[in-house]
Write a structure and sequence with these properties.
Blueprint (H helix, E strand, L loop, with lengths): L8 E7 L5 E7 L2 H14 L34 E3 L2 E3 L3 E2 L2 E2 L8
Antiparallel strand pairs: 1-2, 3-4, 5-6
């Protein structure tokens, strides 16, 4: 297999957690490769311009929340059409615990 069509060196820089931009440098010369990387680093800010957002699914329930907590799974319950429900998947479907409506 002829590898001459592939660059010898490759470097990538992701901005804001990879959500906004990606800079890619490819070269077959180490001197050119280093120069291109320093040019990219000079163009981008040292710190992200916008904060990286944590996906909602990874957040844990906080004690200050007004939503009830499922006593079985110790997770914050979510509001639904018919009241609050536990968003935890179990073997045969979803958690069936529902708090008593007031």
């Amino acid at each position: 297999m002829d590898d001459s069509s592939f660059p010898t060196y490759q470097w990538s820089k992701f901005i804001n957690g990879g959500r906004d931009e990606q800079f890619v440098v490819r070269s077959n010369s180490i001197e050119d490769f280093k120069l291109q990387i320093s040019n990219i680093r000079a163009m981008i800010p040292a710190t992200p311009q916008t904060p990286v957002v944590t996906p909602q699914a990874t957040l844990q329930a906080t004690p200050t929340s007004l939503s009830p907590i499922c006593p079985t799974h110790n997770k914050e319950m979510r509001p639904g059409k018919f009241g609050f429900y536990c968003p935890t998947k179990v073997d045969d479907g979803w958690c069936q615990y529902r708090p008593v409506k007031k």
